[in-house]
Amino acid sequence: MDSVTEPEIDLPVYARSGSGACWTIDTIFQEDFARQVEARGALLVMDALSFPWEAFAPLLDRIVLFLVLPEQLSGPEIATAFAEPMSRITFFDRVYLTRDDQAFVVNRFDLHRGQWTRVQEGMDIAALARADFTARGTPPKDGFDRESDPGAYWQERARVLSALSPELAVCSIRHSLAENKIMHLEQVGVLTDALRSVRPTRDGWRIIEFGCGIGRVLNEVRKLGAELHGVELSPHLLEICRRNLPQAACVQGDISQPDVTQMGSMDVALFVTVLHHLTAAGKLVALRNALGTLRIGGRLLLLEDFGASTKVENPITMPLTVTEIQELVAAAGGGAMILEEVRTLTYSHVLGTRTAVMMMRKVC
C-alpha cells in the first residue's frame, strides 16, 4: 500500500506516505522515531519495500515486528525481495498478507519455508494488528498451582497459553514480548555458534532437544542440516511442534522419568531453560536420559539459568550453580563427560539468575 491514513492503533506505524501519526520515509530518520518505537516495543511496517531495513537492523532486533506484505507476490519472490526482514522474523513477530485492504496472518514456519497458509482473515490491517498486539502484550497472570504437582502445572500452563497464542507458551510471561525476542535472538545465536563448532563433517548428524516445546529452538538449528529429534511433556505444545516441524521426530515424554529415550546415536543433546524447573532428582534423571542418547564424542549443551546459591524461593524455579550442575552431570554419567566451554549470556529470563551455555563432550 502506498499510503494510509492515521490508523486508530496503539502502535508506531511506518508507511511510504501517510498522515497524522504515521512515520514515513521523510520522517523516519528523526531521533524521536527510534525512541518511540523502542519505548512501545513494537512497530507496524505497512510498506516493506521502502522501509530502510539495514539502517534500523539493531532496533528491529529489540522490538516486535508487525510486517505487511503484498499477497500477489509468490513465496520465492517474497524470499528474494524481503530477504533482510525475513531473516529477522521470529516467534514473537507477525507477518500479514494484504488483499483489498484485508489482511491474513501467515504462520511463521510456513514463512520460512516459502509457503503461505492463511490462518485468519476478515479484519482490516490496523484493527488486526492492534488486537493482536494487545492480546499478546498482556499475557495472563501465572495463577496455577505450582507446588502440588509441577508436571501438571506445566501442562496446564502450556495448554492455556498455547491456546491464546503459541509464542506465549515459550516465553517468560513476566517479560514483554520485545524482551523475550531479545533473549530468543541471543540464545539461538549462542547455540548456533556452539553447534557450528562441533558439527560433524559427515552427513546425517543428529540433535535431540529435551523439553522442545513448540520447536522454538529446533526451528533455528534445523538450518544447520541436522536430523531433528525432541521430547516434550505437554501434548498441546507437542502438537504445535509436530505441525510446524513435520520433519522433526518429536515424542511425548517426561524427561524427569527414567528411560524416556535410549538411542545412543545422537551427536548433540540439548536443554534450553528446562533443567532449572526440575527437582534435584528430576535433574539427575533428565541428564541420565540425555547422556544415554549420546554417541561417544557427542556433546551435551545446557543453556540454563544458573543461580548464585541453591536457596529456593519459588518451587518451580530451582536453579543450580555451575559447579553443582557439573557435579550432577558427573553423577549422571559416571565421569564420562568433560567440560569444554562455558559462555555467559547478557540476558536472563529468571530474576536472580544468570543464563549461560555449558558444553560437555562424552568421552566414554
Task: Give the low-confidence spans.
Answer: 1-9
- Percent of residues in β-strands: 15-25%
DSSP strand count:
14
Q: Which structural class best describes the helix and strand composition?
A: alpha/beta
Average pLDDT, all residues: 81
CATH superfamily of the largest domain: Vaccinia Virus protein VP39
Strand order of the largest sheet: 10-9-8-11-12-14-13
> What's the CATH C level of the largest domain?
Alpha Beta
CATH domain fold name of the largest domain: Rossmann fold
What is the straight-line distance between the termini?
61 Å
Count of individual domains: 2
Task: Give the helix proportion (percent range).
Answer: 25-40%
**Whole-angstrom Rg:** 22 Å
What general outline do the C-alpha atoms trace? Answer: elongated
User: Tally the helices: what do you get?
Assistant: 12
* SSE pattern: EEEHEHEHHEEHHHHEHEHEEHEHEE
- Which CATH architecture of the largest domain would you pick? 3-Layer(aba) Sandwich
Sheet with the most strands, sense and barrel status: 7 strands, mixed
